[in-house]
Amino acid sequence: MVKNLYKYRYLLFEIVKKNIKLQYRNSVLGVFWTFLQPLLTTLVLVLVFSNIFGRSSEEVLNYPVYLLCGRLLYEFYTQSTKRAMRSIRLSASVIKKVYIPKYIYPISNVISTMITFLISMLVLVCFILYFQFFTDNPVNVSGYMFLSPVPLLILFVLCIGVGLILSVLEVFFKDIEYLYDVFCMLIFYLTPIFYNVSQLNIESKLVLTALKLNPLYSIVSMFRSCVLFGRMWEWSDFLYASVFAVVTVIIGAVAFYKKQDKFILHI
Amino acid sequence: MKETLPAVKVENVSVLFNLNKEKIDNLKEYFIKLVTRKLHYTEFWALTDVSFEIMPGERLGVLGFNGAGKSTLLKVVAGVLKPTKGSVKVNGVIAPMLELGAGFDMNYTGRENIYLYGATMGYSRKFIDSKIDEIIEFSELQEFMNVPVKNYSSGMRARLGFSIATAVCPEVLILDEVLSVGDAKFKKKSEAKIKSMFDKGVTVIFVSHNTDQVRRLCTKAILIEKGKITASGTAKDVCDIYDEKVNKKK
Predict the structure, then answer these.
(1) Residues of chain A contacting residue B126, judged by C-beta atoms under 8 Å apart
(2) How far apart are CA A127 and CA A120, in angstroms?
(3) Between chains, do A93 and B26 touch, taking CB under 8 Å as contact?
(4) CA pair distance B42, A200, nearest whole angstrom
């Protein structure tokens, strides 16, 4: 599989390039939407939730930055997995005609979303700089920021795994597209994006476990530790998220490998 | 000796399709049918026990009526479809030319599509760079290279696809009724191009309903009926049998 991927690396590169190039083609502002979209949606969330959850505290520190961290990661997760899910069916015309390793499609979609996501991280940088120099509510800038690629890498691996699983499911049951939309909404509320768990005073053990079982919870917490709070992440988060991501990739790869020859009969 | 290896070797290939009476593609239906045991499939053997060999430089014509299994056979040879039984061995680079332009992205410009299509066929960037002038020139689409392919006419699209696919000389070439691309002028040009590839010793699998073309272009032929090879031999013999069957049907 690895040797095969090396042979088709140029195709992978071309599809990633195509996805990025076509995403903003024909829109007036073009690539600026990678910054504008997270900026504007974050503003909406800040407006809506700042009265309820916005009190900067030790757990939140700086609400706009807190919110942006969570939203950017969540957006990357949902966008990349949704695109990967549809990728096989959308490439049906090619898959039916020419032999190419099919896993290229879900993987390239995750990679291209990752690249636009990394570009949109500039918004986060701007936010941090703004609060650093123009307000008295700065973020804890520290050397831990250099560790922030680690949670992003875990997230990337997780997205590849989930993307592979979903793309297989979608070929056989198109309904998964609608189900997954609902699931993503659930994830939005299960991940502390606009709220902080300790503010909610949740007493039910069940809800707390449900929250912690969500790997995005651990990944977002890790990311915020590095970027916002300037401290080391909780090692339990690291362990849980990375094991979860690796297991997901293995399941995804096995499912994909076993089912890929049947794709052509269903698309 | 390396030369004696067949370019394409198809051994006892059978392909089974499950034809469900209606297409089930949502979970609810699937479970209901699974529980009520109504998940019946009609088994359909698109190909049964097909074997043949093509030596390098030979040109095989594949004849058969609609639905006989020709396209399935090509898909198996191209490696897109895995046979249920049997095996296919191909020595060398195989270039499928099935429905030209299938790998295009409609929002991409002509030039961008050349790179994308080339990558889909497994070529490297360097290689496409070295061939791009030739491709553009052959397609005669110089002025349209920066126009999105969605604005092309179907003839232009096919011309571009043909030019990319024939820019390389692969070892095995699959032609699925593509010699009817574009206007009369381009048709002549494309036939000449294919002939020149023949002269270089390319192995060809050629699918057509036109026995004149098969007689002209192929060295040997097979006739497929209901998934089975019913005749094989020289192009002339098989074409005669095919023509006879066509006349009988009338």
Answers:
(1) none
(2) 12
(3) no
(4) 57
Q: What is the DSSP letter of A58?
A: T
How far, in Å, CA of B181 to CA of A106, rounded? 33
A177–chain B nearest CA distance, Å: 11
Q: Give me B215's structure tokens.
A: 């007689």
Would you kindly state where each structural domain of chain B is located, as residue ranges?
A: 2-93+170-249, 103-169
Each of the 267 residues of chain A gets a pLDDT tens digit; together they read 667 778 888 889 999 999 998 888 878 887 888 888 888 988 898 888 887 776 666 677 788 888 999 999 999 999 999 999 999 999 888 888 788 889 999 999 999 999 999 999 989 998 889 888 888 777 888 888 899 999 999 999 999 999 999 999 999 888 899 999 999 999 999 998 888 887 777 778 888 888 889 999 999 999 999 998 888 999 999 999 999 999 999 999 999 999 988 888 887
DSSP-derived 3-state class of residue A26: coil
Q: Ramachandran region of residue B140, left (φ > 0), alpha (ψ -120 to 50) or beta? A: left
Residue in A147, A163, A161, A160 with CA at minimum distance from that of residue A237: A147
Residue with tokens 């918004």: A123
Interface contact flag, B103 A94, Cβ < 8 Å? yes
**Min distance A249 CA to chain B CA atoms (Å):** 24
> Helix or strand or coil: residue A11?
helix
- Cβ contact (<8 Å) for A18 and B112? yes
**Partner residue opposite A14 with nearest CB, options B17, B107, B115:** B115
Tell me the chain A residues in contact with residue B80 when contact means C-beta distances shorter than 8 Å.
95-99, 264
- Which of B25, B82, B119 shows the shortest C-beta gap to A174? B25
Q: What is the ipTM of this complex?
A: 0.79
Coil, strand or helix at B85: strand
Chain B contacts of A261, Cβ < 8 Å? 82
CB B52 within 8 A of CB B60: yes
Closest-CA distance, B80 to chain A, in angstroms, reads 5
Closest CA in chain A for residue B124: A10
In chain B, which residues have their Cβ closer than 8 Å to the Cβ of A104? none
Contact assignment for B107 to A22 by CB distance below 8 Å? yes
pTM for the full predicted model: 0.87
Architecture of the domain whose range is B2-93+170-249? 3-Layer(aba) Sandwich (3.40)
